[in-house]
Amino acid sequence: MQSLGPSGSYGRPGGAHEASLARGAAHSPSRRLPVPVGSRSVVSRGPKTIALGRARRSRFRSKWALLCAAFAGSAIIYGAIVGGQMERIFNASVTGAKHATVAVGFGVKRVTVEGQKNATDSAITAALAAGPETLMLAFDTDAAKERLEAVPWIRHAQVMRLLPSSLQVVIEEREPFAVWQTKGKTFVVDDEGAVLAPALPQAFPHLPLVVGEGASKHAAALYDILGPYEDLKRRMLAALRVGGRRWTLKLRTGTEIMLPDGNIAMALQSLTKLEEERGVFERDLAAIDLRLLDRVTLRMHETAVAPVDADAPSGVPTSATGATPTPNGRT
Question: What is the mean pLDDT of residues 19-48?
Answer without folding.
Answer: 49
